Amino acid sequence: MSYQKISKFLASSFVMLLVGLPINAFAQSGIGIYLDRNYFAPGQGAPQLSISAFNSETPVTVDVHVGVIAENGTIYEYPDWNTRLQPWLSGVSLPQTFNYPVTPIVTLPNVLPSGVWTAFAALTEPGTTNIISIDLAPFNILPDTASGSSYGSLYLSLSQTPTGTNVAAGGTFAQTSNAIQDLIESFDGQQAGLEQCVFNEIAIDISNIEGIQLTTLDAGDALQLSSSTGLSASLFKNVDAESLGYALYAAPDGQLGSSFFQGDANYTFQGFGGPDIQPFTVGVRAPPPLTLTQPMLSSSASHNTTGDLQLMWNGNGGVGEVHASLSGTDLSKVYIISCRFADDGNASIPSGLLAQLKEKLGSGTITIPGLEIPGLEIPGLGTIATLSVSRSNYSMFNTANTSLSYGVATVDSGVSMQLTLQ
């Protein structure tokens, strides 16, 4: 596929079907592109681009392209941001068993206009635009608005557990008079940088967060989710959720059948419009299944918080991202360690964050009017948390009238289990 064709895709609604394309366990060569986060608010600094690459079999010679693509499809290539499709590096030889770890290469100009951009990295046959591997990472330069920020979040998730496989899908839409980054962090917490972990405390009832003024946005009675394999499902609005301060769209029973999720299939979320949200369509490509080998998927796993928690999985040469989290709740807040790693099959969660989570869950007190319940720790047994490790692909989206300040659709596949922190 030529860059001209990619540009045409980026100017159409089909662009997001390309996101995550290079994640292929059987590929000989691959390249990855990474951002320190997928949204950038005024005053937060400019996006930083990092890349990784691998070659697993016979030596190969390639050209290396890195750059960004504007919403109108214009491609700007590093290092001089040319629009002539000139590669950054020409005639690079990748030896057998080559592995280039995630490495920062450039901070983007701090003058990009607001809107959705796409960072890309590609390997091509020398002197041509014949693509060997390409990776795309959308990001949003948020508008500098004082009020009226709006947010949309959609997801499809496969989780393998010790007792079976769960597939869930849903979405939510909200508006705030605050800065959009404040609303994003109220829902999702602070984003971790690549190869980093952060500790977040997220209120279960978003509407009670001090300083956050939140209004539910109605996208209609139901959303539609369909796949390239011919399956479809309706995600209905949960009226009860509105009493908690946000609208939740979900499958009728909260779950979809395990066969609904197929690795590498394309999934499309569609909204038909409602009182507050105009129609939208967004596509995301599902990542292939993740297999966790350390710790083993088990119903009785435990870990001593004096040491880092080592994670091992079926990696993809460092191309693509894996998200890991360890979380628990005291009924008023969710305490969560959130991590982002390159998909190389090996990472760790620092012991200091594990001890912090154990303390929050084990020493806290659950307060209900007229009643106090001790925290979740059982003396001598430890504190129970939920460990999740997954591959994730995402796409940015907006409505027909571009009314959203930030919209993201995510598809991930991974594993989830309880882990006792001791």
- From the helix content, strand content and strand pairing, which structural class follows? mainly beta
Radius of gyration over alpha carbons?
22 Å
**Which percent band covers the strand fraction?**
over 45%
- β-strand number: 28
Helix content: under 10%
Low-confidence stretches: 1-26, 364-381
What is the count of helical runs? 4
| Average pLDDT number | 82
What best-fitting shape do the alpha-carbon axes yield? Answer: globular
Q: Could you give a short account of the major beta sheet?
A: 14 strands, mixed
Number of domains: 2
Distance between the termini: 52 Å
Could you walk me through the main structural features you see in this protein, from its secondary elements to its overall organization?
- This protein is mainly beta and 422 residues long.
- The chain folds into 2 domains: 3-141, Immunoglobulin-like, CATH 2.60.40.2550; 149-421, no CATH class.
- Helices cover 8% and strands 48% of the residues.
- The protein has helices at 3-10, 180-188, 239-242, 351-363; strands spanning 29-35, 39-40, 48-55, 60-69, 75-77, 89-94, 98-107, 115-124, 131-141, 149-161, 164-176, 196-203, 214-216, 222-227, 232-238, 248-250, 266-271, 280-285, 292-294, 301-303, 309-313, 321-329, 333-342, 346-349, 365-368, 371-374, 383-396, 406-421.
- Strands 10, 11, 12, 13, 14, 15, 16, 17, 18, 20, 22, 23, 27 and 28 form a 14-stranded mixed sheet that branches. Strands 2, 4, 5, 6, 8 and 9 form a 6-stranded mixed sheet that branches.
- A hairpin with an 8-residue loop joins strand 17 (266-271) and strand 18 (280-285).
- The relative contact order is 0.17.
